[in-house]
Amino acid sequence: MTDPTNNNDTSRSGHGHIGGGVPAVGPAVGPEKGRGIFDKNLLDRCISCGFCLPACPTYALTGEETSSPRGRITLMRALETGRLDEADPTLAEESSFCLGCRACETVCPAGVEYGLLLEQWRDHQWRGPDRPWIARILMALVSRPGLLRLQALVRRHARDGGNRAEQASRSAAEPASLMLGCVERGLYPKVSRAVQKLRPEITVPSRQGCCGALHAHNGDSRTGEAMAHALGEQLPGTIVTTAGGCAAHLAHHLGRDRVRELSEYLDRAGHRPTGQVTVDGRRARATLQDSCHLRNGLGVTRPPRDLVAAVADYVELPGADQCCGAAGTYAMLRPSDSRALLDPKLDALDRMDVDYIIAVNPGCLRQLQQGLRRRRSRVRAVHLAEFLAMATEPEPADEAETGEP
CA 244, CA 101: separation in Å to the nearest integer? Predict the structure, then answer.
């Protein structure tokens, strides 16, 4: 089987595909009963109408059918029926090239759950040594709660003492627990501290692991589901998360009523931000980049914008609803393609004359920060929680940008 990382960092000039369509497939191997790789009901739902094509970021980059949701589902069907050998390089390439942003789901008239199909595809395509090595390392690290908790020794993320957590839980009308992201707690410890400052009633249980989204998106959805349920048992009440991707993963496995992304939680709690973020004595101008899974998977778009607009002059970013190229491990697996997706956003920011771009997902935050630094832009990228906390007690811009304690 072809290693999905073999052509990860290509410029995609010519795009490495056979022509512009699905590769030629051989005759079916026996009756088309299916190999059991995909859920047949999910696979059969696609009617090949093509509404998904304009919504797909990778199709926009290449203009090739194989790089669209419809084209990839055609590949999945060929793999399922045996008409395409599983070692075909196009299968490896397209399972890797897809962002998994789920923008196609929002325009699909047949209600195709493409995100689940992609997970099933990668479960088969990225087995064992065929899984990208970067993903294997990250998955091994986040699978060890002890290693995650060690970050608290050097990175001062939010935490509760036992008595405080119990008292807050008892006094809250609806108990809520903050999920400490497996990456965020190390890279951006100020995010969880900002949440604690904004809503002291949210407890922060210390003994919590990873939600499993990383596994689900990188070829091990079964472990990802088990990790989601384990975290659900570790965190009492409503689970509040500062990562849009984690919110969508947890909501799928634990139920929509159990999980709230931060902006959604604040909106439902009637939180009214106080103060304002200023730059050089004036009210700051700010924009927002959507989290793909938060927007496309959970339909949350208004709350983060309303919160930003309450403390700054909000300006809508053209293409805010389109993927920034972070997409979990994607920016590490396919850096050239990732940058190609980010560059139009950076171009737009250059024209907008804004001071801040707000993210609601740590992966997006990292992607934006790195892109802005490469361009030596004056625009600063911060997480929504930090931005709201800055309004009540302004802090140095460089500290807010890097997330350093």
Answer: 11
CB 186 within 8 A of CB 155: yes
* Pair 12, 336: CB distance under 8 Å: yes
Alpha helices per DSSP H over 295-334: 298, 302-311, 330-333
Say what the pTM is. Answer: 0.86
pLDDT tens, residue by residue, 255-314: 999 999 999 999 999 999 999 999 999 999 999 999 999 999 999 999 999 999 999 999
Contact 251, 373 (CB under 8 A): no
Q: Identify the CA nearest to 123 among candidates 210, 245, 246, 35.
A: 35
Q: Which residues does residue 271 pair with via DSSP β-bridges, in sequence order?
A: none
Q: How many CB atoms lie within 10 A of CB 232?
A: 17
Q: What is the Cα–Cα distance from 370 to 208, expressed in whole angstroms?
A: 29
Q: Which two tokens stand for residue 78?
A: 């060929």
**First-last CA distance in the chain:** 45
Q: Which residues of 293-331 are buried (b: 16+ CB within 10 A; e: fewer)?
A: bbbbbbebbebbbebbebbbbbbebebbbbbbbbbbbbb
Cβ 284 vs Cβ 245: under 8 Å: no
Burial class (CB in 10 A: 0-12, 13-18, 19+), 8: buried
Rounded to the nearest integer, the mean pLDDT of the chain is: 86
Rounded-to-integer distance, Cα 208 and Cα 224, Å: 15
Give the CA distances from residue 77 to residues 34, 42, 102, 404, in Å, rounded to whole numbers and listed in that order. Answer: 9, 11, 19, 47
Tell me the per-residue pLDDT of 53-94, one tens digit each, with 9 for 90 and over: 999 999 999 999 999 999 999 999 999 999 999 889 999 999
387 vs 190: CA distance, rounded Å: 11
Nearest-angstrom CA–CA distance, 69 and 102: 9
Buried b (16+ CB within 10 A) or exposed e, 158-190: bbbeeeebeebbeebeebbbbbbbbbbbbbbbb
Q: What ranges make up the beta strands (E) of 232-283?
A: 238-241, 259-261, 278-279, 282-283
Q: What is the DSSP letter of 272?
A: -
